[in-house]
Design goal:
The protein is built from three helices and no strands. The chain is mainly α. The protein has one domain.
Length: 126
């Protein structure tokens, strides 16, 4: 974890966290494996920088002003929205994969035998 005194100011940590969050949003609009990996690292950076804000404020023993408090709450809400999004996407993909596996295995999504489909007869002459 980065040292909280590296920045010295909670506002600088908050600005850096916001910049990382903007980059995450930009990467999520261009889906790829590399973007996913980089987004994960940037979200970890946001977490670390928010931790720095908390550490600096605790170290200084002061109550954050309204701007810092609002900035932290805004980032927390954005992270919560992303967490909900990722959770929903994970559930959707898991259910989709289960449905595909069921159909390929000859069963419906409820576990019943899938209806038989007629296949036209082929004749090979040779």
């Amino acid at each position: 974890m980065e040292n909280a005194t590296e920045y010295g100011d909670a506002r600088e940590c908050l600005q850096a966290a916001r910049a990382s969050m903007r980059q995450v949003k930009k990467l999520l609009s261009q889906p790829s494996a590399e973007a996913a990996d980089e987004s994960a690292a940037l979200l970890r950076d946001v977490e670390v920088r928010l931790g720095c804000v908390a550490a600096i404020l605790r170290q200084n023993g002061c109550k954050p002003d309204a701007a810092i408090r609002a900035g932290v709450e805004e980032l927390q809400n954005e992270v919560a929205v992303l967490a909900t999004f990722f959770s929903g996407a994970d559930q959707l993909l898991s259910r989709w994969l289960d449905a595909v596996r069921s159909r390929r295995g000859g069963y419906t999504e409820r576990g019943q035998a899938a209806p038989l489909t007629l296949v036209r007869k082929l004749s090979v002459e040779g």
